[in-house]
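Quarterly update from the structural biology core.
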Amino acid sequence: MRNKISRNPKNNVIQPVKEKIILGIDPGTTIMGYGVLKIVGTKPELITMGIVDLRKIRNHYLKLRYIHERVQRIIDSYLPDELAIEAPFFGKNVQSMLKLGRAQGVAMAVALSRDIPITEYAPLKIKMAITGNGQASKEQVADMLQHLLHFAKEEMPTFMDATDGLAAAYCHFLQMGRPAASKEYRSWKDFVQKNPSKITK
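Predicted structure, tokenized:
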């Protein structure tokens, strides 16, 4: 959380304005999407969105290493205060779920190593928060984000994974100040305490 200085025109008093950077990630082993929002007071502003393209990497473990490197680079570039990440969708087959869970875990581990708090959101919750429809398509989510964040049609990415990552960040923005309805991890220690069954001794 940062403080940005603002001058009140009525009494010429300088007041700090809360500023927060939220990184949203849509994990994947083929395409990973991400979006970054800057929040000043209660106003969200798009900083960037993009993808990590993993299609040319055949080895699954090399993909995980590349995800680790790219998430580190994104964090170093934009210095997010918080991470919002989409939870894996359980309709996939077991092998796909395993690989996707690993990709998500690598991204989370990078954030936790930097003491960046994480909140995990189900896909249905993200879609509901953005469009009001938990069954909305990727295109509907992208169109609504364009309307909400006022970016040009030309800035719409080719891969909707980027807007899915941005949607996770925007969903998190909408939840600010509300009771947590999703999984939150404030640190690596917090993650271990909340997930004892996932930690091997």
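The chain has a mean pLDDT of 86.
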